[in-house]
Amino acid sequence: MKKKIQITMLILFSTVLLCLGGCGKQAPNDHGEDGSGWDSGQDENPLNPVEISAEITDFTYQYYNGFGMCGYQYVLEKTEDGGAHLTYSSDQYYMYGEMEKEVDSSLLEEVQKLCEEKQVGEWNGFNRNDTDVTDGDGFRLSIEMADENRISANGSNAYPKGFQDFVKPLDEIFAPYVKELCEEKRQEQIAQGINGKLDFFMVNFNEQGSSGRDHYDFMVKSHSDGDHNVNINIDVLKDDYLPAGKYLYACEVKDDQLPFDAVQELIEKYDLIQWYNYNETAEDYQNSEWFQLSFGFDDDFYLDACGTEHPENYDEFREEFLSLMTNWIKEGEQAGFIQRYE
User: Fold this and answer.
1) Is the C-alpha dihedral spanning 192, 19, 93, 143 positive or negative?
2) Cα dist. 94→99, 107, 112, 327 in Å?
3) Domain ends where: 165, 192, 219?
4) 113 and 60: one domain?
5) pTM value?
6) Predicted confidence (pLDDT) per residue in 299-329, tens digit
7) 157, 133 in Cβ contact below 8 A?
8) Domain assignment of residue 22, yes or no
9) Whether residues 300 and 324 fall in one domain
């Protein structure tokens, strides 16, 4: 493995919240109904309100956070032919890089209407930082108009009044364009297919609510000296694959004893490349099994998917994968190359 570092099972479990909540919501932390509550009259850097007196020609909005996981940026520019050019980037979809698309001028018109309604010109000159917070989140807003007037606002853990009322509908305006851009990139990768050899996988199936309470968590990677390359945590009430109980394995296993070839055959059999970057939440997600998987290959390609809404071939893949892995565990115990922690 070139890029994948060892991940403890605890860290893997923590990603549940990311896949259920999703970075795609793209909204900063709740700062109250009127934003951060800053009053320009009480700040050493008073605001310099600017009227939106002409057509917006350039619009940039960036949101970032200290964890580097859910940041994103919209850049919207008017083009010479009267249309607009959209550039979008996101920490969630870092593998796609900057995504660009020619769009209709109506998008700029929607953004302008929102800026006027929310009076964002009143925020010009906002530049505040809450130094008591070392991570948190922040934003950057830049607007240029045809009459060369500009609006600029920046904040780190500090937001102008009415900010939430602006950014939520802003994200809703851009949402269909973001979805289209990401799906185009996803389909490009799917078309390229899987070309490498599997050398890492992490697969979790965790029932919840009325779906049950059985948990299966697997992480297997190619061997590295002095390092556990097999981590398995199973906690089941049903006797589907193993007798009810808890099973914990953390051990070193030689590469030629790892089930990479068999797992890759399942990936190809069920065409899991179609699951690339799948992340969907079921309507009744609290009573639907949550799954997360990541398959890493020796050409540095990763096939990742998660959610509570299950993709095509999910049940068939799940059954064969769990049968394969539990049989591998039984054989490994008999052969002595893996040992269960009691």
Assistant:
1) positive
2) 10, 24, 28, 37
3) 192
4) yes
5) 0.77
6) 999 999 999 999 999 999 999 999 999 999 9
7) yes
8) no
9) yes
